[in-house]
């Protein structure tokens, strides 16, 4: 009983409860048909939201005003870069992944340069950067649909006992991210800066380096995500990352990370990503039209964020 | 002590008997308050008469703040009665207190940092509405500032967050004395001079005397016993949630107050124990940016260097410049060892509000607390426990949030952060403001001990008494060092002379 109460006090529990409820509702509607397959599909799709969500979480935790709006453009460009470098050749998979990572890191570093050197607020800096990135992507990709190498496409869709391997790897990665957040100097520095940037500086935290690393990390994760998405959906595309603007921010907030900064948690990103994907599946299963589906998704996100915010005010 | 108690009871009894209660602005009978298992107030009888300035003293945690929250209406007693001007108040609250003319300036600065001085004033005066409210609010606050602090140089258009902490406190105090609709009978001043220099503090206290002479009342809480002795009509001493002495101010002197407050052994003047120390290696050499003559601040290992003068005359700026120079080379400043800073403005420069006491202490030493790549929770806890013992942080559990501590203990945690680090140079930015005398004496001892072990301290303080702990004192004026005194040359007059004199 006591341990249950302790569990309920964790901010991330609610996102998992939400995901569970949505799954139950859908399974109840289909009369128990396809419950397992739904989880497999949800895991495969949630992976992409989790990867960028973790990057966004570190950025948002840096404190008010910090957010990376360049992720969708970043994902789009990186997907094109990865596919072009791989060029349908299985031998080039690793090189292509590294190229996508490098592309993302460069974008992240450029974002921080804009914020730091030109003293532009992060929202404006990353948003304007995303226009530039998108233009580069359009001229670089030329609207070509380059197919991923078969080995890479198979890898992104590989399952073991109904569990996507990519999801397992992402779980390992998120455990690493959680450890970095709580137990490494980098994570502590991010949390300190998010609570009070001046106090962090006066306590000896290397503020500049931490912020630089955070934006670069977010960019790198966006780049990786782009490559993986291109493999999963069998081709690069300028618009491939569009839905991850709202999704990356929503999973951070629904997952229990404070929008005001200084307080973050990684498990919640998983719960919230599963919740969002399952929600879409549920609405599809109910046969709701696309327009209504979008409206409902928006309303539910607003509702969850309001509820989460209300909880915080009580404390 | 029993004698003192008997004294209060007799006096209170006599007053009740003669119906003197109707003269009281406020009276609390048998007020009790518990926070969980902690008994903050244990049946306190307290009153303030019209035209009286009551001084309230006691250690941090003695119950002063709880009692004042009840007078101001922010807390209700668990049991006991509150009466204002003889009438029992059943549903006492902040709006009711304001309606009755009872106001409070709490220690935590409450101005909205993003609003101007005039706009902050408007918050307290709903009647300033319609066209031109901003101008009327500006006039109101400017007139009051002029009255309390002549030559204050604060504009009503200044944004509160851009003012120095001393000026914010001046605005805060002045705002409490402005009058529009509600009457003004009693003002609670909780550490009103903690961020003020001697000059402005004097202006404020003189104003309080004029205010009281006009028949109004005041409660003055201060850890500077001289201020209370010199300005209160009656002094109430609290300890462990009880009133342990209450008498005319004339009947007290410093020693009797300290004895009544308990705990702190009579403060012995730090005698000339500057055992002629060999000057250690050079740690800091710094010239303020605006210094135009050759004066500079030089500190060696094991020295305690005082930075004195009026508040806001460049002491903090120099400390921050030295802090910055430790990580990035800067012209005019030479720093040869790691630096840590103890903030004075705790909320904006020191505390991480989401974190436990342990994490707040550990943040400066993370690199040393690692085991491989990861921070070891065990080592972090050991560091915190060591300093909890050494500096006496009073808490049941170091894993509690930092805000579970009283102000003085929060400050101790910040000291622990700096002293527990690898820093050889510790910068102190007036860290003792609003801290009780017991805590202060403990920390002074610790600072001298650490200096004997070779640490260097640069200590900015607004309290002249603290300079007794320093080997050298630099007096600042307008961003420059105007005098450099050894401790044996130090007198209050010399500091005041240098602070106010024409720049040499």
Describe this structure in words.
The complex is a heterodimer of chains A (315) and B (504). Chain A has a two-stranded antiparallel ribbon with strand order 1-2. In chain A, helix 5 packs antiparallel against helix 6 (122-141), helix 5 packs antiparallel against helix 11 (207-232) and helix 7 packs across helix 11. Residues 310-315 of chain A have low confidence and may be disordered. Chain A has 14 helices and two strands. The longest helix of chain A has 27 residues, at 35-61. The two termini of chain A are 22 Å apart. Chain A is mainly α and 315 residues long. Chain A has one domain (12-25, 34-308): Orthogonal Bundle (ABC transporter involved in vitamin B12 uptake, BtuC), CATH 1.10.3470. Chain A is 76% helix and 1% strand. In chain B, helix 4 crosses helix 5 (133-148) and helix 13 packs across helix 14. Chain B is an alpha/beta fold. In chain B, a hairpin with a 2-residue loop joins strand 20 (472-477) and strand 21. Chain B is globular and about 70 Å long. Chain B is built from 16 helices and 21 strands. Chain B has three domains: 2-101 and 182-261, 3-Layer(aba) Sandwich (Rossmann fold), CATH 3.40.50.300; 115-178, no CATH class; 282-500, P-loop containing nucleotide triphosphate hydrolases (Rossmann fold). In chain B, strands 6-7-8-3-9-10 form a six-stranded mixed β-sheet, with helices on both faces. The interface between A and B is medium-sized, with 19 and 25 residues.
């Amino acid at each position: 009983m006591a341990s249950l109460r302790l569990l309920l006090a964790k901010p991330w529990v609610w996102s998992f409860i939400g995901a569970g409820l949505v799954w139950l509702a859908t399974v109840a509607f289909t009369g128990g048909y396809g419950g397992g397959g739904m989880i497999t599909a949800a895991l495969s799709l949630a992976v992409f939201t989790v990867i960028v969500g973790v990057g966004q979480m570190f950025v948002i935790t840096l404190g008010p005003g910090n957010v990376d709006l360049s992720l969708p453009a970043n994902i789009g460009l990186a997907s094109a870069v990865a596919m072009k470098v791989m060029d349908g050749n299985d031998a080039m998979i690793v090189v292509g992944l590294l190229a996508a990572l490098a592309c993302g890191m460069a974008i992240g570093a450029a974002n921080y340069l804009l914020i730091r050197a030109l003293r532009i607020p992060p929202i404006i800096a990353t948003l304007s950067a995303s226009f530039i990135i998108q233009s580069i992507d359009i001229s670089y990709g030329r609207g070509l649909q380059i197919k991923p190498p078969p080995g890479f496409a198979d890898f992104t869709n590989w399952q073991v006992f109904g569990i996507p391997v990519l999801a397992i790897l992402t779980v390992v990665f998120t455990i690493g991210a959680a450890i970095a957040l709580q137990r490494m100097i980098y994570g502590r520095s991010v949390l300190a800066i998010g609570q009070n940037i001046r106090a962090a500086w006066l306590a000896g935290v290397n503020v500049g380096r931490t912020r630089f690393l955070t934006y670069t990390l977010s960019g790198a994760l966006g780049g990786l995500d782009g490559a993986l998405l291109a493999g999963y959906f069998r081709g690069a595309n300028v618009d491939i990352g569009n839905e991850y603007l709202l999704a990356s921010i929503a999973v951070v907030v629904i997952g229990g990370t404070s929008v005001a900064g200084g307080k973050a948690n990684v498990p919640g990103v998983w719960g919230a990503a599963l919740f969002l994907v399952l929600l879409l599946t549920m609405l599809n299963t109910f046969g709701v039209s696309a327009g209504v589906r979008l409206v409902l998704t928006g309303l539910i996100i607003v509702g969850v964020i309001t509820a989460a915010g209300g909880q915080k005010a009580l404390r | 002590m029993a004698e003192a108690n008997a004294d209060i009871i007799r006096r209170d009894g006599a007053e009740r008997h003669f119906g003197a209660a109707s003269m009281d602005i406020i009276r609390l009978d048998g007020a009790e308050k518990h926070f969980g298992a902690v008994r903050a107030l244990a049946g306190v009888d307290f009153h303030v008469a019209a035209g009286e300035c009551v001084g309230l003293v006691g250690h941090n945690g003695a119950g002063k703040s709880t009692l004042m929250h009840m007078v101001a209406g922010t807390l209700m007693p668990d049991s006991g009665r509150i009466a204002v001007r003889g009438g029992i108040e059943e549903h006492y609250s902040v709006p009711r207190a304001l309606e009755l003319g009872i106001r409070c300036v709490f220690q935590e600065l409450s101005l909205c940092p993003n609003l101007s001085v005039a706009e902050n004033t408007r918050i307290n005066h709903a009647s300033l509405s319609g066209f031109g409210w901003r101008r009327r609010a500006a006039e109101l606050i400017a007139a009051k500032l002029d009255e309390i602090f002549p030559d204050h140089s604060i504009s009503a258009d200044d944004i509160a967050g851009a003012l120095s902490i001393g000026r914010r406190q001046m605005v805060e105090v002045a705002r409490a004395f402005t009058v529009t609709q509600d009457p003004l009978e009693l003002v609670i001043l909780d550490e009103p001079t903690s961020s003020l220099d001697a000059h402005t503090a004097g202006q404020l206290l003189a104003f309080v005397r004029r205010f009281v002479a006009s028949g109004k009342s005041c409660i003055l809480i201060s850890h500077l016993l001289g201020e209370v002795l010199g300005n209160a009509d009656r002094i109430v001493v609290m300890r462990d949630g009880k009133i342990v002495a209450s008498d005319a101010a004339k009947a007290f002197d410093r020693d009797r107050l300290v004895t009544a407050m308990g705990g702190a052994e009579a403060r012995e003047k730090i005698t000339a124990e500057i055992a002629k120390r060999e000057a250690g290696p050079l740690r800091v050499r710094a010239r303020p940016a605006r210094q135009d003559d050759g004066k500079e601040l030089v500190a060696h290992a094991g020295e305690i260097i005082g930075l004195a003068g009026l508040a806001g005359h460049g002491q903090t700026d120099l400390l921050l410049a030295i802090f910055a120079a430790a990580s990035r080379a800067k012209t005019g400043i030479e720093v040869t060892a790691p630096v840590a800073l103890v903030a004075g403005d705790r909320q904006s420069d020191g505390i991480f509000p989401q974190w436990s006491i342990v994490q707040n202490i550990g943040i400066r030493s993370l690199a040393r607390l690692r085991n491989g790549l990861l921070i070891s929770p065990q080592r972090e806890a050991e560091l915190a426990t060591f300093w909890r013992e050494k500096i006496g942080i009073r808490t049941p559990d170091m894993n509690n949030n930092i805000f579970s501590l009283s102000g003085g203990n929060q400050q101790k945690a910040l000291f622990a952060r700096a002293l527990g680090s690898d820093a050889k140079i510790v910068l102190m930015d007036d860290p003792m403001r609003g801290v009780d005398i017991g805590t202060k004496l403990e920390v002074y001892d610790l600072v001298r001990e650490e200096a004997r072990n070779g640490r260097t301290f640069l200590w900015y303080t607004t309290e002249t008494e603290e300079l007794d702990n320093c080997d050298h004192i630099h007096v600042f004026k307008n961003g420059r060092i105007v005098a450099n005194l050894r401790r044996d040359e130090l007198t209050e007059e010399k500091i005041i002379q240098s602070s106010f004199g024409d720049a040499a």
